[in-house]
Amino acid sequence: MKKNRVIPIVLFKNGFVVQSKEFSEYRNLGNPFDSIRRLSEWGADEICFIDISSNQDSNLRSDLSRKSSTEYLEVLREVSRISFMPLSSGGGIKTIEDIELRIRNGADKVIINSAIFESLSFVEEAIHTFGSQCIIASLDVKRFESELSIFSNGGKVHEKQDILKLIDKLQDLGIGELLINSIDRDGKKTGYDLELAETIASIVKVPLIICGGAGEWEHLAEVLRIKKVDAVAAANIFQHVDQSVYLAHRYLYNSGIPVRKPKLLELK
Amino acid sequence: MSMICILDYGSGNVRSVYNRVSQIADCKVSNEKNDIVNSQHLIIPGVGSFGASMKQISNKFPLDVLFSEIAKGKPVLGICVGMQVLSEKGLEFYEEQGLGLVSGVVRKINSEELVLPHVGWNNLINIRECPLTLGITEEDDFYFVHSYRIDRISPEFIVSEAEYGEVFPAIIRRNNLYGVQFHPEKSQEAGFKILRNFVNIK
Lengths: 268, 202
Prior knowledge:
The structure holds 2 protein chains of 2 kinds. Chain A is α/β, with parallel strands linked by helices. Chain A has a single domain (5-254), classed as Aldolase class I (TIM Barrel, Alpha-Beta Barrel), CATH 3.20.20.70. Chain A has 11 helices and 12 strands. Chain B is of the alpha/beta class. Chain B has one domain (3-200): Class I glutamine amidotransferase (GATase) domain (Rossmann fold, 3-Layer(aba) Sandwich). Helices cover 25% and strands 31% of the residues of chain B. Chain B has 6 helices and 13 strands. Chain B has helices spanning 14-21, 33-38, 50-60, 63-71, 81-84, 188-200, and strands at 3-7, 26-30, 41-44, 76-79, 89-90, 96-97, 105-108, 118-123, 141-146, 148-151, 158-164, 166-174, 177-180. The longest helix of chain B has 13 residues, at 188-200.
């Protein structure tokens, strides 16, 4: 039987792993290599490793033209040598060369976010060049009253597009997976936005990953019980608890959610 | 130490396969005739589409060398699309000839109401004994990522299957020729077991 995936997200900012709250406050959590190694040993099904580093002068334009930091790519390369599970790389991907660079340094897939709003033909070219399986489209969503709004550029730019229509377009282009992140719930530990997850799940034709708001293992179970939610992602909770992924798997497994048997791995 | 040659035709997972296999054997990423002939085992990696992969393989491989090494009995492992191209033809986007080393055609998974691609961890079913499946049980999960499957392959070549909407071949074998639909290089300990089993084939 196909299992639901538990995916830790590791945010990389200027050399360190950070914790994020509502996309604006960041707290340093230490060395990315150690962090990913631990998550790997605890049996993570996959890891999303996202570069949110910014230039010293982080106005919007310099942010957009930012090149992948060599430091991030070095860490990515090192991490891919020790973690024998799928590794997705995201943050600042704007060009086909960016994707090539990530893959050459060990990524199996890439996460495209803000570039979606610059041109859909880029998404199409990326799919054509690297295959659907390589491209995860990611949308950051915020609620305004009951309306769902999409934000790009790390939650800074409001994109005035209908989210369901956009998802349809992305699916038609052939994206491999869809990652939906709730900005409202980011870092809040109050649980996932289940209504948002249900809305997206009702129209999804590709594997759907839901992110934002996990504070306890039951929150993961809640979202995985929604039909057509394939995977659950979270950042902070997996960094703060010892043996986190193992405990998450154990909780979900015992709750009757189809996940891999909880296991602690010994990395060689 | 046995020498493994990982065939290089620009497949996205060459590096991951190399990273994992180099932990247990002397290995090299190459498509040079000498390396292929001098190796003890060959691995055909693969990820992405059948057509694009076949085009690269036809352009970059010395196919006559590959065929003659296979005929001599050298163990070969195809991974994901690297397994699919062993079949007669692929029906992805357009019809494309495969290497024709096993019977069968590659077509889209009929996943019923399940989404495609089939991405994530799944276990094997109907596991038959074979050098590759030593120590592998239905409890082991492997990482899959694909929308297409081998179909109409002779049943005697199917070593194990998996299920996602329908049942499809997950491990195939014809004499010294092996193929796996999943990615052993990305499947943590269970995948490592498969690769170790392959390297140990004499």
